[in-house]
Design goal:
- This protein is mostly helical.
- It has one domain.
- It is about 80% helix and about 0% strand.
- The chain contains 15 helices and no strands.
- The protein is globular, with a radius of gyration of 24 Å.
């Protein structure tokens, strides 16, 4: 039987090494990590998806209502208590699910690091994930506050650039907007590593910012590249899971075609609503599971950058060199 060497996160790696180690960790721990996310993060995400889908389907019904219906139907819905309850519930459950997605992924990695030769216990992951919840919640709140501020601050120079470039060519104005969104994306990816820094080192948000700046000195684009590529992979595969819902949505819209042309049409059945909700839930669940990919990649990048500066892993391997030889001899292939 082939002995599989445990993953040593504390090693200095180049860009390709970080990517390969990320995919190796996901491949070897897909069952344990996936089960942890299903148990601890998915319930809140699924509840949020139910409320989001209710809002979407209600809006679609209003947009495809007959022309002789009340023109105030849309206004009435957006001012109704049902809309605000659904929206608030969706936002709250999505926030809880998002925080638990981050804490569960990080807790699994940290527990794996403690016992690389033993299976990761779900109970230990849950305990660790709960202990990281409020720290991650606060960091995520400040992260979004900072993103909102960056959104406004970047808008001023971009607006000036658009006015200037529009005098030359409208195409240049479009390129200015693309640069604006690209800059926001780069900043969001770069600062996303702060979540693992805070959870791993047990420090606050602002101390994490200082630590992030120190670790990524000279490695800014490498860090952004690691995160951006894996976020792109997450988005692409999440979009694939969205296709069945869009197909069903198209068929669902055909249900009201007769009404639009003045004919009678029966209202969608309970099963129509249930199938649409389930397909939407599957998409949200897939996005949650796939989010482990960029979170893991940034964690591997953190260990790589930390090792380059502090060499803790190298010193530990030198101290335990004899023990490692003994373990390797006990697991000879046969």
């Amino acid at each position: 039987m082939q002995y599989q060497t445990p993953i040593d996160f504390r090693a200095a790696r180049d860009f390709g090494g970080v990517m390969n180690m990320t995919y190796r960790f996901i491949r070897e721990n897909i069952k344990g990590l996936g089960k942890s996310l299903l148990f601890f993060a998915a319930p809140a995400v699924l509840l949020a998806s139910v409320f989001y889908h209710e809002i979407v389907t209600r809006m679609l019904k209003l947009s495809t209502s007959p022309y002789d219906s009340s023109p105030f139907g849309v206004d009435e819905y957006f001012t109704s208590i049902n809309f605000w309850i659904s929206l608030l519930a969706a936002l709250v459950f999505m926030l809880i699910g998002g925080v638990f997605t981050v804490t569960t992924t990080h807790a699994y990695i940290l527990k794996y690091r403690e016992k690389p030769d033993a299976p990761v216990d779900l109970g230990e992951v849950w305990k660790k994930s709960r202990s990281l919840f409020w720290k991650t919640f606060g960091a995520m709140f400040l992260y979004h506050v900072g993103a909102s501020m960056a959104l406004g601050m970047l808008m001023i120079p971009v607006a000036i650039l658009i006015v200037v470039t529009n005098m030359i060519s409208p195409l240049l104005s479009g390129l200015s907007m693309l640069l604006y969104y690209a800059a926001l994306f780069i900043l969001c990816i770069y600062f996303a590593m702060i979540f693992f820094i805070c959870n791993k080192e047990g420090i606050g948000f602002f101390a994490g910012l200082s630590r992030l700046t120190k670790l990524t000195k000279g490695k800014f684009w490498s860090t952004v590249g690691v995160g951006a590529i894996n976020v792109y992979i997450q988005i692409v595969f999440s979009a694939l899971f969205m296709i069945p819902w869009y197909v069903f949505l198209f068929l669902y819209q055909l249900h009201d075609v007769a009404t639009l042309f003045g004919h009678t049409a029966s209202s969608p059945s309970f099963w129509h609503e249930a199938i649409g909700t389930v397909l939407f839930m599957i998409n949200m669940l897939a996005g949650t599971l796939l989010s482990a990919l960029p979170l893991t990649a940034l964690a591997v990048q953190y260990y790589s950058l930390s090792e380059r500066q502090e060499s803790k892993g190298l010193l530990s391997r030198i101290e335990n060199f004899g023990q490692q030889l003994q373990v390797a001899s006990q697991h000879e292939d046969y």
